Amino acid sequence: MVHRAQPPAPHTPHTDNQRASIVVLASGGGTNFQALLKAHNAPGYGARVTALVTDNPTAGAIAIAREHGIATAVVSPRDFTDRAEWNDALTQTVAAFSPDYVLSAGFMRILGPTFLAAFPHRVLNTHPALLPAFPGAHGVADALAYGVKITGCTLHVVDEGTDTGPIIAQASVPVLPRDTENELHERIKHEERFLVVEWMSRIGRHGLRVDGRSVTLGDGY
Q1: Is the distance from CB of 152 to CB of 175 less than 8 angstroms?
Q2: pLDDT tens per residue across span 40-87
Q3: Hey, what CATH topology would domain 20-216 get?
Q4: Exposed e or buried b for every residue in 28-39, given b needs 16+ CB within 10 A?
Q5: For residue 153, which of 172, 167, 134 has the smallest C-alpha distance?
Q6: Given this model, what pLDDT does residue 203 score?
């Protein structure tokens, strides 16, 4: 039987002489995950990656984690009878690593209310568009189809909607004439890696304050 995880006590952000721990959720190649691993050992970096959790036993991110000595766990939906049971198992698996923050980076599953309640305002996500424009799984293709001249990427707090949570930071990317979806997505990924690496360090040092749709770093940066 899978037991539902209980919401933890209110989270206290780390002080400047400590580093926040991050569990990364990824389903694919793990480019953002790899960028974080390259950065997190640098002097002064405010966070450290402690584990990778994936829903895909063949995810390329697993090999990256093993190369860097990072703990991994696979929670495949195929091993559970329904979505609720899978969400419970995912919650328990991630909670076992005691993360300060959970970063969903190319994780192709919806996180349920049980999971979000276990890590209130501490589950973050990257999205390849300038939210609130073009939410969902096809943000790059939707931006191209709409004919926008500027798109980009967003780091946001996850809520129970689809890419509707409060926005932490964004980076813009121009849409060039005759761009294909793949070409545009690669340029977005490039900016996304910088965004994730920079802001996870800031968040790790200062924590987050979430007030409605307003998100600030914990010391008022």
Answers
A1: no
A2: 999 999 999 999 999 999 999 999 999 999 999 999 999 999 999 999
A3: Rossmann fold (3.40.50)
A4: bebbbbbbbbeb
A5: 172
A6: 96
Q: What pLDDT, on the 0 to 100 scale, is given for residue 6?
A: 33
Give the pLDDT confidence score for residue 15 in this predicted structure.
Answer: 43
Active-site residue identified among 40, 127, 156, 185: 127
Selection from 221, 191, 190 nearest residue 205 by Cα: 221
The per-residue pLDDT for 219 is 72
Q: Residue 205: helix, strand or coil by DSSP?
A: helix
Residues 6+ apart with CB under 8 A from 178: none
Rounded Cα distance between 43 and 144, Å, is 40
**Predicted local confidence at residue 5, as pLDDT:** 33
Q: What is the pTM of this model?
A: 0.90
Cα 66–Cα 69–Cα 71 angle in degrees, nearest 5: 80
Residue 151, number of CB atoms within 10 A of its CB: 25
CA 198 to chain centre: 13
Query: What pLDDT sits at residue 35?
Result: 96
Distance CA 110, CA 130 (A): 20
Helix (H, G, I), strand (E, B) or coil at 163: coil
Q: Taking the mean position of all CA atoms in its chain, how far away is CA 139? A: 16
Runs of H (alpha helix) within 52-180: 60-67, 83-95, 113-118, 139-146
Q: Which residues of the chain have pLDDT under 70?
A: 1-17, 220-221
Active-site residue, 206 included: no
Q: Are 112 and 82 in contact (CB under 8 A)?
A: no
Phi, psi of 215, deg, nearest 5: -125, 125
